[in-house]
Amino acid sequence: MKKIISFILGTVVALNLSISVANAAAKEVRVAFFLEWPTPNQEDKVKKMFDKALGVPVKWTNFSNGGAMTDAMLAGDIDISYSQGLVPFINAVKSKAPLKLVDVAMEYGMGGTTCVTSKASGITSANGSELEGKKVAVPLGTMAEYVFDESMKVVGADKSKMTVIQMDPEEGAAALVSGDVSMACLFGGNSIKAALTVGTRLLTVQAARDAGIKGIDITSVTDKFMKENPGMLRTFIEVTHEANARYAAGKSDMNVIAKDAEMKLGDMKETLGGFVFLNAADTKKSMESGGTLDGFLKGMGTPNGAVDTSFLPL
């Protein structure tokens, strides 16, 4: 009799657990991403491979900056932010936002994020201090702001003596073209290309690399989605890493990626070529103590517990 009762109780508990999991499973997954920021998994996005793997519709929404991604996550409108800049994520968790960093989307040099000075200003890295007293456009709270800060250190300019205007990349490029600002710090292939029609990079890609300026974008998730849908989160990251491996093998459909990124094929290839997509093992090393990402996080005063490596497809 005891065995029968025990079996019945066990069955009830298991049934309740399965019902709880079923109720928690999302009916759709809402993902934030950037345009002008091509990534291999956009092929899977277009071909609905994420929808197939997760078993539910995946709704992708493009944002102008990582801070807006954070706001949407906190508002309950986005579950996963793919390729969110590290700076806006750090700013969010410093404010105790219930978010977790679960993957490194990519590492990149300053090809995709840079500061461009207008040719009319006559300002280059050789006389960068002349930016003092000038107007500069910067998308604050993004990796472009980090690049701005680090670039000013390299050229010996005091940013506190500049008029820094908050502008998203597209706006900053337009302001540089119109002559309203002397420098614009930007990310995204199309915006940088527009800025370069009237300007030059304050630091070349190589000069920025030599100065140790590197960008890292990450995949972040709300604590709520992570706890309620761990399998879906793991699958999302797995599909993304499979896309990265396909790209590394030269098997990505570049035309599909370019179209989805709203970029010309040549421009897209140039931007994508500046990104480094780590495999799962190297990602874990970067995220753990002593790794590249860990160094950034500690250097920027990120609270403990902001990173979770358990969803990586190892």
Automatic annotation (TrEMBL):
Record InterPro entries: SsuA/THI5
Signal peptide: 1-24
Short name of one Pfam family: NMT1
Keywords associated with the record: Signal
Cross-referenced SUPFAM superfamilies: Periplasmic binding protein-like II (SSF53850)
Domain spans labelled SsuA/THI5-like: 58-243
Xref: PANTHER family: ALIPHATIC SULFONATES-BINDING PROTEIN-RELATED
Protein name as annotated: Taurine ABC transporter substrate-binding protein
